[in-house]
Amino acid sequence: MLARVLSSAVIGIDAFPVEVEVDISNGLPSFNIVGLPDAACRESADRVRAAIKNSDLPFPTKKITVNFAPADLKKEGSAFDLAIAIGILVANETIDKALVEDKIFCGELSLDGRLRGVPGILPRAACLLSDSPEKGFILPHVNAKEALCIEGILVYPAKHLFQVVQFLKGDQKFLKGENQSVNHGLAKAVSGKYFDFADIKGQGHAKRGLEIAAAGGHNVLMIGPPGAGKTMLARRIPTILSSIAFEEAVETTKIHSVAGLLSSRQSLLSTRPFRDPHHTISDVAMIGGGTHPRPGEVSLAHHGVLFLDELAEFKRNVLEVLRQPLEEGKITISRAASSLTLPARFMLVAAMNPCPCGYFTDPKKECHCTAIQIKNYMSKISGPLLDRIDIQLEVPCLKVGEITGKNSGEPSEAIRNRVEKARTKQRARYEAEKIACNSELDVKQLEKYCQTTSEGENLLKMAIQELGFSARAYHKSLKVARTIADLEGSPCVEASHISEAIHYRALDRNIWFR
Amino acid sequence: MFGRECDRSQGNRSKQVVGSQTLGVIGEELAYHFLSRKGYKILLKNYECALGEIDLIAKEKGALVFVEVKTRRSEEFGSPLDSVTRQKRHQIVKTAQYYLKRYGIKDAACRFDVVSILMLRDQAPAIEVIQDAFREGE
Fold first, then answer.
1. Number of structural domains, chain B?
2. A206 and A87, same structural domain?
3. Residue pLDDT, tens place only, A144-191
4. Residues 22-81 of A with CB under 8 A from B
5. Residue A471: which of A327, A305, A324 has the closest Cα?
6. Domain ranges, residue A455
7. Is the CB of A31 less than 8 angstroms away from the CB of B137?
8. Same structural domain for residues A409 and A458?
9. CB pairs under 8 A between A and B
10. Which of B46, B90, B104, B115 is the most buried (most CB within 10 A)?
11. What are residue A22's phi and psi, to 5 degrees?
């Protein structure tokens, strides 16, 4: 007999419906799975058999053929276990055919029949909503919260295969449908979990730079001797980021869901992600990849911060692959098997020393690097990459008074309030453009929204002539100036805003070519 | 329906002499009686073709059962069940496929059973049947 059960598969961060067909016929007993399954998928035969037997359900001693349709798309992972098991029970006439038609099934089975969580539930739920929202979604209990982020679908969380079978046979008490959306924890984001900017003494200049970066989503590079507080500053960036909007949260959570990084207690990510990969990371881990492409750090940092500590220690190819995502906010991964575009709109925060020994800019300590060493160190960071960094900050060594002084800095909350205000302004202004912040402006929009005074115009001209600004540097400075104006609440970009923005770009010249 | 072609009672493969009979033949004899008592209807003993050999072919509860009998004198080299290796299983499946084709049996529920017999010195033989012991392609 033939059975049809619905499930879904994930490619990249999008899901699509998959039909699991199960045929049982007489003949030499066998269990075959076809329809481009990967190894984990093919192994589900053994899990399904054990799970059915251990749930005290009959397993047919017959020839079993399972097909995944559409057959031309690669299926991966163990999420089809439940659909296959139900398909066998339907084909075996343990469950009535009509009972499974309005449901979709997802979940991995353990040998004793318990349901285990699978990655990628959120994209599946979103796909269900757009394709056939009237269908019920039977899924592992641990994934329930994740699925409930999507409003408008009916979810049946189950812990055991037996529960699902009893439920399908009509015993409603075994599973309870839920459709209460659970995304209420969004607004109250950052709490005492992180550190606070008040912990950092001095470094007012750097703090100001980071505030501007957070307000406009600009990329930042911090340069300074060891121990100046670069890493401390970076770790506190999450405390001043604006809260994440619902649509943004869904997008980012999808990526984390596919990567299997969501815990069962978590539904939507309530804060912007902060990713800080170690500098030994490979380029594939950075941008994503693999035979079945998986998201890398740049995608995991989508709508959040990617922090690269010791920037010059990263492998050169790892830094160069950052160019496309930095510019376009997405990354296209092409492999022989498939090509995939993942979102990767992040704010890059990088920190580095000015030379191998670290003390090149330090007024007191002697730097003992040769000119060649410094040149080699710097050559790790290519011009094109540096060009994409809007704000360059020098983080100098603290003075004695600053270190021992009692007065602490401004608390994160005050800074965050200003950032939030600036972001709200930007969101309102760009509502029609479908972008969120200044750093996402394209050239056309730049002309429209970043009108400056003639004085400011002249300043920018001078920057191109004297400092050798590229066209990109020119545009980026304008964007930063726009953010500074937003922070001040000024509707127009003034000359003072432009001069501050230009000053943030010229640091590399100030340090290495003085 | 189920033809009989190579019905032999005497095996000629083992050099392992136990009195006048080989250990394997004794085991198969034991399995024959044991299964008969359990309600198996034995159709054939030692079905043989170019692809291999099946010790017993029987009917039980409407299913056609291909039985492999394994006999051991001690467990020093593993239990009798261990010796039904992947190759052996493959061979049995191939032979069964040939059998089904040869006699035009198209729509029968089939099964592979293994009978393990352990004949320790001075003890009654321990017989164990494993139903649905393996499947095609495993």
1. 1
2. no
3. 888 888 888 889 999 999 999 999 988 777 777 777 665 545 444 444
4. 25-32, 61-63
5. A327
6. 441-514
7. yes
8. no
9. 35
10. B115
11. -125, 125
DSSP letter string, A35-49: SSB-HHHHTHHHHHH
Interacting residues of B123 by C-beta distance below 8 A, sequence separation 6+: none
Nearest to B107 among A26, A29, A31 (CB): A26
Give the angle A480-A481-A484 at the CA atoms, nearest 5°.
90
pTM: 0.81
Q: How far B108 CA lies from chain A's nearest CA (Å)? A: 5
Picking from A25, A26, A30, the nearest residue to B136 by CB comes out as A30
Give the CA diameter of chain A: 87
A496: domain CATH number is: 1.10.8
Residue B42, amino acid: I
Q: Domain for residue A184, yes or no?
A: no
Give the CATH number of the domain where residue B51 resides: 3.40.1350.10
Number of domains in chain A: 3
Which residues have C-beta within 8 Å of that of residue B51, sequence separation ≥ 6? B91, B94, B95, B98
> Is B6 within a domain?
no
Show which of A371, A399, A431 is a domain's final residue: A431
Tell me whether residue A179 is in a domain: no
Structure tokens at B54: 């099946």
Q: What is the pLDDT of residues B62-117, one digit of tens each?
A: 899 999 999 988 888 878 888 888 899 999 999 999 999 999 988 889 999 999 99
